[in-house]
Amino acid sequence: PDRPTAVFAANDNLAIGVLTAASGLGLRIGTDLSIVGYNDIPLVSRLPVALSSVRTPFEQIASTALELLLSPAPGGHDLRTALPTLMPRASTAPPTR
C-alpha cells in the first residue's frame, strides 16, 4: 500500500503517539516506518524502540540570551545561531522500498 516511510513529529510526545499507533497496526518501527520527534526528552531513549529525536541546545540559547541582555553594546542587531542536533536511534533507518 502507498503509505509514508517516515514521520517527523512536531514534538516527542506526538512522536510517541505515532509510535504507539503504528506499532498497534503491526508496523515495525525503524523498518516499516521511521519516526523522529523533536526536543529529545529523556524518556525517548528508554522506550522499547528508542526514538530518534532532534535536540535543541537550550543551555546554549539561554546562555547566549543572557550574554546579549547583559552586554554593554548599544542595541544593534547581533545575530547568533544555535544549531539543533539529530539524535539517531532505533526508530529510524533508510526506507526499504
From TrEMBL:
One of its GO terms (molecular function) is transcription cis-regulatory region binding. Residues 3-92 form the Transcriptional regulator LacI/GalR-like sensor domain. It comes from Agromyces bracchium. InterPro entries: LacI/GalR-like_sensor, Peripla_BP_I. It comes from the Bacteria. It holds the Pfam family Peripla_BP_3. PANTHER family: HTH-TYPE TRANSCRIPTIONAL REGULATOR GALS, LACI-RELATED TRANSCRIPTIONAL REPRESSOR. This is LacI family transcriptional regulator. The keyword Secreted does not apply. Keywords: DNA-binding, Transcription, Transcription regulation.
